[in-house]
């Protein structure tokens, strides 16, 4: 692999608008904006929200509204979706919504697309109704969305106003190998959810790179990896803070979801050995520790996988500790060498 430096890599934020125990959702949104403003100052490339539904600790269900809220209160950082779950929506409505955002905030809006429901099957039924098989039509719906954004659609009977003729960057998101093939075939940038689905990461990005076909929007493969980050002054403090995200993933494993819990001195009384193994497998691509430790681990990760961009997501209970974690993480991209 050619000589590469971390300071040449783009770094970004994925925000799930995590709801913290003891705080109203309104506080979540205020912290998201505060975090986005700090990220803008620290050189982060983009700030994305993820569409999820019926999850007590995740308040990013109305994703496009949060994108507008943050874009309208920042100046330069790109804001977008990581992602919009396209089978939950009609391509026309997505084109209109993101066409509106791109008109209000030119050259700052990203549209990341996923095929999962972003929730459980019962809630998916409430969202999709009789259209429960919509995920099978994901490639077709991506093409429909591209058509609505195209100037060539001006003569069609159904048009996206606003949206038509706007260059809204489309990303394909994935947590398995299926979307890797689609992103490659369409010549689109590919973002992988390695922050919760690490098992297929290496296979998926290899499929993407091996099958990539250049397009009008992208000449070379572009891989973004989303990872969990908990940075602090010391390794010990970071490990303590990280018990909150471990408890959050415990809720996913056991089906007993709660608001983001405060950190604890030990997880021993919270999980058994099987639950610990399941959680730690999901958290395989997590960077927890001091800036020095994270820089070394991140250097190895980039060297091994050759990604083009790192997107950090941080589930930290204390708001000041969370902001500090993002500050320390940004500093790891300054002057760090990767071979």
TrEMBL record:
* A UniProt-annotated Pfam family: Bac_luciferase
Q: Which InterPro entries match?
A: Bact_Lucif_Oxidored, CmoO-like, Luciferase-like_dom, Luciferase-like_sf
Luciferase-like domain ranges (all copies): 27-308
Q: Which Gene3D superfamilies does the record match to this protein?
A: Luciferase-like domain
The source's superkingdom equals: Bacteria
Q: Name one GO cellular component term.
A: cytosol
Q: Name one GO molecular function term.
A: oxidoreductase activity, acting on paired donors, with incorporation or reduction of molecular oxygen
Give the protein family: To bacterial alkanal monooxygenase alpha and beta chains.
Q: What is this protein called?
A: Luciferase-like monooxygenase
């Amino acid at each position: 692999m050619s000589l590469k430096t971390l300071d040449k890599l783009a770094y970004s934020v994925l925000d799930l608008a995590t709801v913290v125990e003891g705080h109203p959702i309104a506080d979540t949104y205020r912290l998201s904006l505060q975090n986005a403003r700090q990220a803008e100052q620290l050189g982060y490339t983009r700030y994305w929200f993820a569409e999820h539904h019926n999850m007590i600790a995740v308040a990013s269900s109305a994703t496009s509204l949060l994108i507008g809220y943050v874009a309208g209160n920042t100046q330069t950082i790109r804001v977008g979706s990581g992602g919009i779950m396209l089978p939950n929506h009609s391509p026309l409505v997505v084109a209109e919504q993101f066409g509106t955002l791109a008109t209000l905030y030119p050259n700052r809006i990203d549209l990341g697309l996923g095929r999962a429901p972003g929730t459980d099957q019962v809630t998916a039924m409430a969202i999709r109704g009789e259209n429960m098989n919509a995920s099978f039509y994901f490639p077709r719906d991506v093409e429909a969305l591209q058509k609505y954004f195209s100037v060539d659609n001006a003569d069609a009977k159904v048009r996206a106003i606003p949206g038509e003729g706007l260059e809204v960057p489309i990303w394909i998101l994935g947590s398995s190998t299926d979307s890797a093939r689609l992103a490659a075939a369409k010549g689109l940038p590919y973002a992988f959810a390695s922050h919760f689905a690490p098992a297929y990461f290496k296979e998926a990005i290899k499929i993407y790179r091996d099958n990539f076909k250049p397009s009008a929007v992208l000449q070379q493969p572009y891989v973004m990896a989303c990872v969990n980050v908990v940075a602090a002054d010391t390794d010990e403090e970071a490990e303590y803070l990280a018990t909150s995200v471990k408890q959050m993933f415990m809720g996913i494993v056991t089906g007993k979801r709660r608001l983001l819990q405060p950190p604890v001195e030990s997880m021993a009384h919270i999980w058994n050995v099987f639950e610990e193994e399941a959680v730690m497998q999901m958290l395989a691509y997590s960077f927890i520790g001091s800036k020095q430790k994270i820089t070394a681990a991140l250097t190895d990760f980039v060297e091994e996988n050759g990604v083009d961009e790192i997107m950090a997501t941080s589930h930290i209970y204390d708001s000041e500790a969370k902001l500090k974690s993002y500050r320390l993480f940004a500093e790891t991209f300054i002057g760090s060498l990767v071979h």
